[in-house]
Amino acid sequence: MNITDVSSTKIGADAPIRLRCEMLTNPLEVEFATPHLSWQGCAATCQTAYRIEVMDDTAGLHGEATLLWDSGLVNSKQSTHVRYQGLTLVSRQRCKWRVKVWDQCLRQSDWSDWARWEMGLLLPGDWTASWIGRDGVCAVDWRAQTLPAPFFRKSFVLPSKCLYARLYVCGLGFHEVYLNGHRVCDHVLSPAPTQFDRRARYKVHDVTAMLRSGENTAGAVLGNGWYNPNTAEVWHFDKAPWRDYPKLLLQLEMTWPDGSRSMISSDETWRVGDGPIRFDALRNGEHYDARLTYPAWSETGFDDSRWHQVARVPGLVVC
Questions:
Q1: pTM
Q2: What's the pLDDT tens digit per position in 219-240?
Q3: Are 69 and 14 in contact (CB under 8 A)?
Q4: Cα 230 from Cα 240, distance rounded (Å)
């Protein structure tokens, strides 16, 4: 190797890539007090040690970020499911982290790029939202001629553009959520099925860019999904003890430049109407009557005077 070759050769190990928390890239809904961190190194090298730094990114919004954990140099080849061992994490906390490694030649890499995670709503008291559904609907009755999918909406006013916003939602059995006429995400068949008489999963979305100063509108449409299946089959989901009509739990949180927080939550001020989806079932298809389509139903200015006030309904644990 000549001098030119040496001068152009990388001296240290390659920095780690593909940083993940709980095997997810920059997740917004971490529920574990001690999350697991993973990364990927270069295939041509063998990791012999690592060092992790985790910072409180929430504090960084108004000043210097606070160090939550510095692992120090750890002699280990482990690069998956490394448990966080820093300061106690709380609901909504925003964390950023990075890692460097040493290879088999004891060469130290540069720090990786920063990755992030956010803590979810860890305590029942973090929820201000109520479960809502149709008024007067108490028990499932599949003898009814039609069972339209419920459409929910709520308009609200924001004084200015917020710093960032998070939407926490669980719509059973399946949900699609909209803000100002736009679908919040491309998820389908969400949330994932669980044993609904014990718990249900919620999703978190970054909706900062979807909100505006002035009047805004949130909307959601629900399907029966695994929460209210009507098809007789070998697993007997049609006889599940949790079966009930669709219901919604939604909490929109806005954080402002001064650090304060405001919320729009599902409650009795929401409106509900029946739309073009007259029937839906996992294995029995969907009946869609296009004559009943609502143009711009999830946008500001829609006339929902013929819709009805929602009712609070019995809920379940979300996690």
A1: 0.89
A2: 999 999 999 988 777 788 888 8
A3: no
A4: 10
